[in-house]
Amino acid sequence: MRSLLPVATVSMFVIALWYVMAVVMNSAWTLDQAKRSGVELSFSEIVFDTMEQERPRLPSPHQVALELWDATIDKKITSRRSLVFHGWVTLSATLLGFLIGSLLGVLLAVSIVHSRVMDMGVMPWAIASQTIPILALAPMIIVILNSVGLSGLIPKAIISAYLSFFPVVVGMVSGFRSPEFMQQDLMRTYNATAWQVFWKLRVPASLPFLFTSLKIGIAASLVGAIVGELPTGAVAGLGARLLAGSYYGQTTQIWAALFSAAILAAMLVGTIGMLQRVTLARMGMDR
Amino acid sequence: MTLAVAGAAWLLAWWLNIRLAAGPKSAITRFAVPAVFGVTILIMWECVVRALNVPGVILPPPSAIALSFAHNTDILWIDFVQTFVRGALSGYAIGCGSAILIAILVDRSLFLRRGILPLGNFVAALPIVGTAPIFVMWFGFGWQSKAAVVVAMTFFPMLVNMVQGLASSDAMQRDTMKTYNATYWQTLIKLKLPVSMPFALNGLKICTTLALIGAIVAEFFGSPIKGMGFRISTEVGRLALDLVWAEILVAAVTGSLFYGVVTLVDNRVAFWHPSRRR
Fold this sequence. Notes:
Chain A contains 11 helices and no strands. Chain A is an all-alpha fold.
């Protein structure tokens, strides 16, 4: 709570800076229009005009907020101009991909922890794969799956899945390894089987790591779903809104899509954060 | 026939790796086991694609990709310079550099630090690649817009890491500096910057991947007729998948080398941090 005032101050500063930038970047167009019609504009008139342009270079914050309101609350959610409709298209691909990716990631992490061969053979590749831009594969996956007859939700979900897969693998391997030697020795003195050690020691100990890597994974999944929507030629989804906006110069639409993506990301990460707090509090692991 | 070869190669490699992994861990086995795994995947890929007659427009075999790589080195080099050297590297330098400078300014005020850390963490989790169409609109199709996207993507993760790093000196160390009557600049250069190095290099490492992703994805929104992202999206359209894979190979090697170089610097600069103790 003590950071509420500082955060509010910085946010206010950012919004103020945004308005100033909007005036600076849009005034060229305003002045040009005025010169053509031979009118002299006063400073306040220029400022007022830069806030209300149809296609500004930088839409002012209230224009973006209005567009967001207009496209989420005022439109019917089945309408193709509704951001709720497009947001849901992206969200469904994100969630499906995230589920597949994190499930496979946990499974691979389990096998890496239990097999020395997997650990030495696969783990270096999993780590190295995080340093390469796998997102570059997205257009190819979309087009190939399209030629095989798969389109719509599944290809985007696959991109989301492999983006969330590797962070979960790497996080969960360190999670399953986090119990100390002392605790492992204790399990051995109880004559616990590998199965029991896994469920009673490794899984509970790995939960903090699980939630942290799920947060990274779901943010990556959302990026994957958005980028996956680009090569399909802007049919539906937030990525399609971005692309269509950039084709037709609808800057306000781009910003509104960008903000709904940000809100979506915040909600997804926030949901996992809440699950994390509740679960860890029940287990007595919260700080 | 080729399928049988693939199966035999798989079994052989599996047996070899079990033998290697069962022995004591050494520098050689550490390298050999993943290498055997990688080579096996390549052999399986080649054999399965040949045996099942998978068309090249769906999945080309590794040999075709290698051939395409060898034939198109000039194109690949042009794209590499356009995307990595011009777009990613310049954006990386500007983004990380400005983040470090702003972090040093922010560090002077506890109020600003409390305000910027949560916001920075929040923004760092957002899909910032989405700003690409806006920057392409502002800065045109050239490498400048790509560098701008990279700046936007690298700035916040770097800022958050650097602010945390500068704040990581403990009270005892700061008191010592005070008893020495050290000025602000002396404290900054002799205490705060050195203790922030592990955090700074962690941020720099995260940003290497982000920089390459930003530069490539931004080219999907518009680009002159060169660049890795441009080549990938157009060659996919022309179904020249061997060239696409060659381009992805370049991206992968570039990403790993970039990360590797920063890791080398990290090992030289931040060797003293407790997380490095073995």
